[in-house]
Amino acid sequence: MGSHMLIRRPGSICSSEITDERHFRMRRDLLAASFGLAVGAALPARAALAAAAAPAAAAAPKAATPVRNARYSTTDKPNSYEEITTYNNFYEFGLDKSDPARNAGSLHTKPWSVAIDGECELKGSYTLEDILRPHAIEERVYRHRCVEAWSMVIPWLGFPLADLLKRFKPTSKAKYVEFTTLRDPKQMPGQREAVLDWPYVEGLRIDEAMHPLAFMVTGVYGRELPNQNGAPLRLHVPWKYGFKSGKSLVRIRFTEQQPSNTWAVSAPREYGFYANVNPAVDHPRWSQATERRIGQGSGFFAQRVPTLPFNGYADEVASLYQGMDLRRYF
Amino acid sequence: MGKASPVELRYRWLYKPLLHLACLVPLAWCIGGATGLPHVPGLGVEPARKVLGILGHTALNLLLCTLAITPLRQLSGNAQLLRLRRTLGLYAFAYAGLHFTDYMGIQGFSLRAIIADIAKRPYITLGFTALVLLVPMAVTSTNGMIRRLRTRWRKIHWLIYPVAVLGTWHYWWQVKKDIREPLLYAAILALLLGWRIVRRQLLHRRAGLPQLGKEPQP
User: Fold this and answer.
1) In which domain, by residue range, is A87 found?
2) Helix, strand, coil share (%) of chain A residues, nearest 5
3) From residue A250, how far is each of A119, A128, A180, A213, B176 by CA, in Å?
4) Looking at the predicted structure, is the pLDDT value of residue A262 above 70?
């Protein structure tokens, strides 16, 4: 279970390996539909954004089928579409893991816009189409490790976060990036209760955010991202506990100071800013040494597998934390 | 003993069987869900965790029901209610035991992990202690034991109070964020325990006895 599984020769790429035929076909239909939409939405782009974007990418349609990025994909068996979309921690739609799948229908993701703010040159409000246009969507099969000691393997669609952030020309003062989830109790029934301090806010150090593994997610299993998984735009930072990856993002802000993050504010003893997956540092109320791999095992009890440092991505990211006391900065 | 009274018969052939059925519903629910029985909702993608919650909740519910018998009896003046208490208590023990078994399964039945968990995690320690304290009560719940132990039986079964407190506390501590439900449990528990304390104080005052009587009242 070392990180050797991350490095794979290209050529082994085939989404049908992991996608059952039904989903595979749906994906085709969906992609066709979304191209229609993208063309229809090709309104005059904001001049600044267009200038910042790669000129060729802005005009050309995206790759016909998202290609699996083998270098950044695990070979672990992916969870089923059903598992990925019915077992979610998304308190904006309720506290039970089955609540988001049931309640997230009230979220309207079209139209959607994202505010870009803080220490960057190209601040402003961007439509989702503006945000997505220049990026080629690729597939990455990531391990997802929740702080609650369960894990899944998820074939995401998306693009590197760094590619997005660079477009807004962060200044030298941009030391951190803050990600804010939508706050709208009308669409998000869970926000009618003050369970957390809404809106949900998360943050990364700029070097973490710029790391090639940090991934902006727009889809799963070759399909558009379902609302309960954080549509239309969410983050996945695979070497950190899941709560670091904000969903349904409406604001990205570059900051000089470390932003506060919702769970650390809510329970500072239990959740930190860094939240790197670490089997050696237990949560105060449970061990992080092993994890329950959802969908694997007897069918009743999920299989227990050892948790790896940085969720198995240590070779790629451990250097970001050289000299840091990871017990203190948990 | 002689012939059974009509009340006794009603309890034996109607109320008790109904109580058994009611107490078995949560278990049937779990088994039905796990085996994919029609008309029973599935247990989601992590059945063992779902079942863990159902079993734990049921154990705590039954524990509080057990504690509610005495106040109900005192309020209604219906002493027959006592006949149901043992059944409730034993089911509470059974569900707590199943809850713990399920927890062990979730830990992969790894004895090392379980022992470490019990030693290191306060909420697990609390829950486990509660389960252990239930054992002497379950063992001494037979008619023979009640007769043989007499006043010592009362002392042993006084353990229901710490068990209920530990159980509620265990639930409170394992909740990640939303404490509304554990709060409700704690409030009901406080009511059930408060009733006993207040009543005892009042009785003692009326009788002109010292305020702190020694006789426990499970």
Assistant:
1) 3-321
2) 30, 25, 45
3) 17, 10, 6, 21, 26
4) yes
The tokens describing A264, both together, are 């650390």
Question: 3-class DSSP state for residue B23?
Answer: helix
CA-nearest of A327, A317, A283, A325 to A143 is A317
The ipTM (two decimal places) reads: 0.78
Whether the pLDDT of residue A15 is over 80: the answer is no
Averaged over B30-58, what is the pLDDT?
89
Which pair of structure tokens corresponds to residue B69?
């018998």
Task: Give yes or no for a contact between A306 and A1, defined as CB atoms under 8 angstroms apart.
Answer: yes
Q: Is A326 a member of any domain?
A: no
In this structure, is residue B20 part of a structural domain? Answer: no
Interchain CB distance below 8 Å, B44 and A87 = yes
Question: Which pLDDT belongs to residue B18?
Answer: 96
Nearest to B106 among A196, A289, A301 (CB): A301
Domain count, chain B: 1
Residue B3 and residue A141: Cα distance in Å, rounded? 73
- A88 token code pair: 């979610």
Q: Identify the domain containing residue B112 by its residue range.
A: 46-207
- Alpha carbons A114 and A137: distance in angstroms, whole number: 18
Q: How confident is the model at residue A62 (pLDDT cuts 50, 70, 90)?
A: very low
Q: Between chains, do B46 and A87 touch, taking CB under 8 Å as contact?
A: yes
**Tokens (6 digits) for A114:** 């994202």
**Residue A101 and residue B59: Cα distance in Å, rounded?**
29
Residue A16 has pLDDT above 50, yes or no: no
* Domain presence at residue B108: yes
For residue A293, give the CATH number of its domain.
Answer: 3.90.420.10
Split into its structural domains, chain A has a count of 1
- Residue A181 placed within a domain: yes
> Rounded to an integer, what distance in angstroms lies between the CA atom of residue A66 and that of residue A137?
6
Cβ-nearest to B123 among A148, A285, A304 = A285
